[in-house]
Design a protein that fits this description.
heterotrimer; A: 330 residues; B: 118 residues; mainly alpha; Methane Monooxygenase Hydroxylase, Chain G, domain 1
Chain lengths: 330, 118, 186
């Protein structure tokens, strides 16, 4: 009993610390890659190749004065970044980061929890993620924040529907809601990856995920030219930092889900499973940054129209056709 | 229950602890220089005159309604995806009727210009 | 162990529910309601109904409460715009209605408890002695099975209800065609 509790504590601790480190270094990756896209060098002063930049950033943010707007609703103003961060990090619980380890005859599954409704859990967490943003916008008592918050929420809920439709495309084939089981089904050949059976579902999922995480080219809530910084206009110091971290945490979890559901998760030849998982996630993160470095921002009306009139019908059509093929085949 | 939800609970505690530390550590470390102007909401350098929370366009309400309806649809699609291979045509046609009726509403909202942003 | 968790969750749920109706700011009310939903989801987890727990969060805490918050923010409701207690009759009527619902609840629960086998199939088979090999009636699969076979007709009717909600929203939000000064100028 005791040893099991210790194992769980260690496992959760290691995965969580790994997540936090990945978040920190995703900011580095983004700055470096975007810099090279723009023919700059990027961070290169702190440490070799600027590798200690995230640490320097964190320390700096901790020592920054926090400016809380006088008219802000203090309680909600404080709780909003926390909500954002918590919902962003909790999703990692159901994603298998590797197959399993055997230490001293004990088999340790490399995921925090294999609940049999894993996909619904992910969906539940992402639907709660809206509140951090809407509360930040509302509680700051600033016009830019409020508009940014409401816009962002409307955007997130619009694309959440398409996100779900993309995931259900995989569910139709996998017949299970457990993420670990879906990854196991894709083992063996590379052609077992659900990407090859559901390319449109992946396309719908990935684009919706970019919008859901408020990333470029869908980063309307942070469109500097019109909304200053959107919902976190009035946030400074570490509180702003938490929103920043949540955005990256969301990016990582969304990439991890994409890798697990469509690209076989930790499955892969020769290299250890954990490494495969990390490689796949990093490739997705790179694509995210690449998109940010190259594509211009959408206009808000284009964004909403695209979500409801293109992504949603596309996802639904893909689903119905997949279902039709399945029913005819069986 | 112990095996599945205890680890999630532990993760929750870790995450909340880190979030609390990040929120409250700067209170100890960071300098505090209180000047009145600094605490005014940002409005491009102009001192704000009215309350920020005005009334907002009703379009956002329409988006929220659309979201609820289609979120419910998705909630029905999850179990449907699990059962489709077993019930086959019955489940397929059942869902086709369900989606068909919802799409009527979707087309109606689109036709009424709910997604038009001037 | 699970009894203690039940009590903690129940206290949070009831306490938050009381806060929903007593707190003055509408946004706080909405947030307490979210807390109620989440602790109810916790209770579902305790019963082993994971699927329902997830739906509770996705549908109620995730979707419906977003609409509530939107409406509160769109109308810019605040403490002072509530007006003072002018609804005295409604207040007492409220108590009467709550009493009626309470009696109803007790009757229904009593009625369900009489038919213990019916009750035990609703809850989990876990803990009922001699239940045989445990069939997980709470799993997503069984929910799906009953929903799409036994309750196929109510399922279809739901779509009509949702359709009505969409059309109702359009009708409520529709612009009145009044002569608009800004439009005339433009």
């Amino acid at each position: 009993m005791l040893i099991e509790v210790v194992i769980i504590l260690l496992k959760v601790g290691v995965i969580f610390v790994a997540l936090l480190t990945t978040i920190a270094y995703t900011t580095y990756l983004e700055r470096k890659v975007v810099a090279h896209i723009q023919h700059r060098i990027g961070p290169n002063i702190v440490g070799p190749f600027g590798l200690l930049q995230p640490v320097a950033d964190a320390v700096k943010l901790l020592f920054k004065e926090e400016i809380k707007p006088a008219k802000a609703d203090q309680f909600f103003y404080t709780i909003a970044p926390m909500l954002s961060f918590i919902t962003a990090c909790m999703t990692i619980a159901v994603i298998p980061v590797g197959n399993w380890l055997e230490i001293g005859g004990k088999r340790i599954e490399l995921l925090i929890s294999d609940i049999n409704i894993g996909i619904l859990y992910i969906f539940a967490m992402s639907s709660l993620g809206v509140y951090g943003i809407v509360l930040a916008g509302w509680s700051s008592n600033s016009k830019y924040s409020l508009l940014g918050g409401i816009r962002s929420t409307a955007q997130m809920i619009s694309y959440e529907v398409s996100l779900g439709l993309g995931i259900i495309g995989v569910l139709l084939l996998s017949q299970t809601l457990s993420v670990a089981e879906i990854v196991r089904q894709q083992s063996g050949s590379i052609f077992n990856w659900y990407f090859f059976k559901q390319p449109i579902a992946f396309f719908v999922y990935f684009i919706s995920a970019i919008a859901e995480t408020n990333r470029s080219p869908f980063d309307l809530p942070e469109a500097e030219s019109e909304l200053v910084a959107g919902y976190h206009t009035e946030y400074s110091g570490m509180r702003f930092g938490i929103f920043y971290l949540s955005e990256y945490a969301n990016m990582i979890t969304v990439s991890a889900i994409a890798a697990s559901l469509f690209f076989g998760g930790w499955n892969g030849p020769i290299l250890p499973p954990v490494l495969w998982f990390v490689i796949k996630v990093v490739i997705f993160l790179f694509i995210y940054v690449w998109i940010r470095g190259t594509l211009p921002r959408f206009r808000y009306d284009q964004l909403m129209r695209f979500g409801w009139k293109v992504m949603f019908p596309l996802g639904l059509a893909n689903l119905i056709i997949t279902a039709l093929i399945l029913v005819m085949k069986s | 229950m112990f095996g599945t939800f205890f680890p999630i609970f532990i993760l929750f505690i870790f995450v909340v602890a880190v979030a609390l530390i990040m929120i409250y550590l700067p209170e100890l470390l960071a300098p505090k220089a209180k000047t009145r102007r600094k605490f005014l909401p940002y409005e491009s350098g102009i001192i704000p005159e009215t309350d920020a929370r005005g009334k907002l366009p009703v379009k956002f309400y329409m988006i929220a309604i659309l979201f609820i309806v289609f979120d419910l649809e998705i909630v029905f699609l999850y179990p449907w995806a699990l059962i489709l291979k077993e019930l086959r045509w019955f489940a397929f046609i059942e869902m086709l009727i369900f989606i068909g009726i919802l799409l009527l509403g979707y087309l109606y909202i689109i036709r009424k210009g709910a997604l038009k942003w001037e | 162990m699970s009894f203690a968790i039940f009590f903690i969750l129940a206290i949070i749920a009831v306490g938050a529910a009381v806060m929903v109706i007593t707190t003055k700011s509408p946004v706080s009310s909405a947030l307490y309601l979210i807390l109620v939903m989440c602790s109810l989801a916790g209770l579902f987890v305790l019963l082993g109904a994971l699927f329902l727990a997830a739906l509770q969060i996705i549908v109620y805490a995730g979707a419906i409460m977003v609409l509530f918050l939107f409406v509160i923010m769109l109308l810019n409701l605040r403490r002072d715009e509530y007006g003072h207690d002018s609804h005295i009759i409604q207040k007492y009527l409220g108590f009467v209605l709550v009493a009626v619902i309470l009696v109803q609840g007790i009757v229904i629960i009593g009625w369900a408890m009489k038919d213990y086998s019916a009750a035990s199939s609703l809850v989990s088979t876990e803990g009922t002695p001699g239940a045989g090999p445990a069939v997980d009636y709470n799993s997503a699969y069984w929910v799906a099975r009953t929903l799409f076979t036994k309750y196929a007709y109510p399922f279809e009717v739901t779509s009509i209800l949702l359709l009505a909600a969409m059309i109702g929203a359009v009708v409520i939000a529709r612009k009145k065609r009044l002569p608009d000064i800004e439009n005339e100028e433009g």
